[in-house]
Amino acid sequence: MREMPLRHAVRIVCYSSMFALCGSLAACVESVPPDVVQAIESVDNDLAQLRAAELAPSAYNAFAYQWVTLRSRVEAEEDTVRWPWESNDLEAALRGLHAEGTRTVALLTEQQETLRRSAARQLAEVEAQAHVLTTHVGAIDSRLILGEKPIETDLLLKQARTFYEQRRYEQSLSASQRAFHYLAAQSALLQRELGRYASPDRVARWQRMAKETIEWSRTHKRAAIVVSKAERSLTLYRNGQKVVSYPVRLGFNGIKEKRYQGDGATPEGRYRILSKRGRGQTQFYRALLLDYPNQDDRRRFLSERKMGNIPMLRGIGGQIEIHGVENELMAQTLGCVMLENVQMAALFDRVDAGTPVTIVGALLERNSVAKALASLSGQRNEI
Known about the structure:
By secondary structure, this protein is an alpha+beta fold. It has helices spanning 6-25, 34-49, 52-55, 57-77, 89-139, 143-146, 149-165, 169-194, 200-220, 295-306, 341-350, 368-377; strands at residues 29-30, 81-82, 223-228, 233-238, 241-247, 269-277, 287-290, 321-323, 337-338, 356-360. The protein is rod-shaped.
């Protein structure tokens, strides 16, 4: 057996003597206090949860580098004891690191709370605006005008909500901001496509058209029909007096002004009933065929095509009717005016070929579409 070097033996004896003395005096302390190490480890965990490496890279890198360095010293001196009056630069360094890490945690916590409140406020505002838009779009049946934009907005809002729940507040703010811009674009599109409903001049023109039709009925002692698209109503007049009013459905894109075949819009203008179609003469329950397109429709169509607003392959269309329901599965028509079958039967018996039919956008300045547009334009332009 090899003999132990003298210096090792002396060191062991010294340590043994020191431990014995410490034990008798109960005055020695560990060179590395465990509570300080645990406190730093807790701070390190807090920094990781706060994503300090991403949000405060300089501060975190300095902390991490110093902690790695000091941890190696801790491991080397974890069994070392000292007298209370002896200086301990390792403990001082550890306590300094803990204080610095604690300050970084407090700063990041405050920043995260500020971000959280901002993300929560913005997300709530954008979700509320999306709800308002969806409600109004449904009320005025203008979903098709917006195309896929509402779906894209909904996906962004769901993404923003998910980011928020994951405490990724910056990403939540970004997603909800993008959703807000999508909503603003949709509102602008509705204003552009349906703004005529909020135009006093246009509404006054529609009112004159309806008044002239009613006056014709009074003068000729005949029936006449006025359809208001915004109010979704068909009113029958006789001798200038209102006889009955029925709720109607329009084309699948009926709220818009008709421009060409297949656009799903219901035309606006002065028309007449060309013929009455009973069973076996129409795919619907009963139908009143209108003289669309008339000269005004053709002139407008040619002007729009000349300006490039209508695809060259699109025609002006035709076969616009006031009709009943084909079957229970038929929820909307393709550009016509639809009544329930019972009401269609009553109207069918009260009119003849040649009866004037005036279709207007709205008869009231504060119509449903104008009110929807006003509500949308009143929303905040910034968040």
